[in-house]
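Subject: Sanity check before I submit

Could someone independently write out the structure tokens for this chain? I want to compare against mine line by line before I put it in a report. The sequence has 496 residues.
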Amino acid sequence: MDQQSPNSQVENLIRDGIAKARAGDKATARLLLQKAVELDEYSERAWFWLASVVETDDERRTCLHNVVLINPNNARAQEMLDRMDEAGSGEAAPKPPLNPRKAMIGAVVALVIIFFACILFLVFSGDDGDEKETRVTPSSTPTASHTPTGTPTATATAIPTIDPRSLPPTWTPSPMFSPTPNLIESIPTPPAEIQGRIILRSGNEALDRENQPIFFVNIADLSRLPASAEGVRGRNPSVSADGTRYVFIQYLSGTQDIALTISNLNGSETRTASQYWGGARTIIFEQDMPAWSPVGPQIAFIGMESGKPATDLYVLTIGDTPPVEGGNPELLRRLTNDDSAESWPAWSPDGSRIVYVADFVDETLAQPNGIDLYIINVGDGSIAQLTTDVNELVESQPDWSPDGTQIVFSGTAAGANTSDIYMMPADGSAPPSVLVDFGPHDTQPRWSPDGRYIVFNSDILGGIGTDVYIYDLETQMTYAVTNDPRSQDEANDWVR
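---
Independent answer below. Compare away.
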């Protein structure tokens, strides 16, 4: 197991938390991000993302206050605080800029006043010393508390803040529970008639649960073949149309970074995708969520160039030969160029269009304009909106049916902390409907090549990881491909 520094552990927790938040798994994202701020209470990014997955407005205010306390120049956090206070008071009056130094001094003075007030109360209340001692002796251990962060009084000069160095948690994480043997045994394995292979990441690397070794699973007998070389870990594998290669996000243990990587099926001849376009000239950060075109050597993925506020969609065209020295920038094309955060591209069966998720306000906080599915024409770049439910349903991880008529995706309904598998017509002629409600978090649905089955991931066993399942659209039966609640098993493609 790799030994990680505290900073790298925090970064891994934040990255995993962001991934879970984008996938609609707010409960897990909350646990990961809460752990991150416990390890590094001055992590502005962790507090930012934690604000998007907590359950109450008071918790959200606490997180945002800490962001502004850490970085008084964070205009986004201040704007969100202003919006929350305006919504709570019904007024739109501008708030004065937050001064964290004054707020901290004011908090200290307030605590001193409260302390002496408590002393005076204890001295002058009651009849005698014995009675006072009886009354103030607690019958249970007191819990830590902090000053309420509601609407300020008329004498307040700034929004109250909380020093993150002394911030107690204001919410209780949902407890994990161990699965029962009966539940594991009650989910059947796939019947022999289901053919093909599934590519997945699988393992229990504790310090980086997002990246694990890559395997192929033969569905007929559940046998495994390693796809990644020994010691290589990553996520989100996608297989080429001819079945000879796959692309995935590789974790680079030396630099503790990630890279879009292309490999043969047995893990040999791996090369980073940036070699094809010349990564020294065009640097793309946060490369993730690759999808190999079903008709040719093209890979869609997301990334972010320097100075951009959010991720965009890219398409990389590669051939059967190794990249030329220095790369060829004409092989890379950026499909989107806006302030929204794009994610989870998936190709249409003919390779002409891509369905994806777009977050059109702010990638770090709860969005008033919501998250929806969009379809882009790869040829001319034209974009059509597929879902228009704003925040009523948060869509993630879509996939196109082999016949091109349906889209499946993982969705989280408004006010819910769990996700289900939804399906809708690819032409938008009908709204989404729940297809699979199997466990607390059902994610990452992918079609079988014949269109009869859907492979998806779920944490129904209640362990610390996820497992892989297959849903039969004809019989509505669900089968277990993996059943280890300690392992992080997540499928991302069904080999064509």
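---
OP: Matches mine. For the report I'm noting this point. Confidence is low (pLDDT under 50) at residues 91-109, 120-180, 362-367.
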